[in-house]
Specification:
single chain; alpha/beta; two-stranded antiparallel sheet; globular
């Protein structure tokens, strides 16, 4: 309305202003249309921004070597940008909401300094559409937080046997229709076969492994949907050798895309 008011006047000046206003409007529309056409023509897909949070763990887990390996695997997926942060307190920052997927790659034995803020941030992140990937002993992260099981689906239970002795075992795909595992075959890995998970939350199993100690099957990889968000939980990843399987690498890359709802 203000533009129309400025384009009113008496006779000659009025005509001149109307013409100028019209030319400016047409020019603006042309520029806007041109920009839109360039965006459409570029066909550039969105970048999936991934944040790996690490920096603490059980002494037997060398996060300094596994975090870069995990980063390099994820970077092989199309349009994935990965950043590593070696401080779990970063989760208290609002900056985490600039990311599409957060990878929890740590086990902390002490409650974080800003625990309430971290807990609220993580819950809000996933409830509002973010994706979370938990790896290996991240099942034991935030064990002081009762609400952690709601996100993780299953968590470390100190009352259970921790894991089989480190060594080679077979991971069996039990859902060959899920986008993360569709068309993939069972694979062998060198790792710790975790037997320590507890919890009653609803989960969708993608892969299991059979313990050589007690002959029981245990969940290795499973998924969960919470609010508008998604969670992938994999207890694999004791050291860099756990990431040698190309099948497992592909599962991790697909997990990021599923968490980001890429292609949906």
């Amino acid at each position: 309305m203000r533009s129309q008011a400025r384009c009113t006047g008496h006779h000659g000046p009025r005509l001149f202003i109307v013409l100028m206003c019209g030319l400016v409007s047409v020019g603006w529309l042309a520029i806007s249309a041109g920009n839109a056409s360039e965006v459409l023509a570029s066909g550039k897909p969105r970048v999936i921004r991934v944040l790996i949070v690490t920096g603490e763990d059980y002494i037997g887990h060398d996060w300094r070597s596994t975090a870069p390996v995990l980063r390099d695997i994820l970077r092989q997926a199309p349009n994935v940008d990965v950043r590593i942060v070696e401080d779990i307190e970063f989760l208290a920052s609002e900056v985490i909401f600039d990311y599409t997927v957060i990878v929890l790659h740590f086990k902390n034995y002490e409650a974080p300094a800003r625990e309430d803020k971290i807990y609220n941030n993580l819950a809000s992140f996933v409830d509002n559409g973010g994706g979370i990937l938990l790896t290996h002993f991240a099942c034991g992260a935030f064990e002081q937080w009762p609400g952690f099981v709601r996100i993780a689906g299953r968590v470390w239970d100190r009352q259970k046997r921790p894991h089989d002795p480190w060594g080679r075992f077979r991971v069996r795909i039990v859902d060959d229709e899920h986008p993360i595992t569709k068309g993939l075959s069972d694979f062998e890995t060198m790792d710790e076969l975790y037997t320590c998970l507890g919890g009653e939350e609803s989960i969708k199993l993608l892969a299991v492994a059979r313990s050589q100690v007690d002959g029981e099957d245990y969940p290795m990889i499973f998924v969960r949907e919470i609010g508008k968000g998604r969670v992938v939980h994999s207890v694999l990843g004791h050291d860099s050798r756990a990431y040698l399987s190309e099948t497992y690498r592909e599962i991790l890359r697909r997990a990021i895309r599923w968490l980001a709802r890429e292609g949906e």
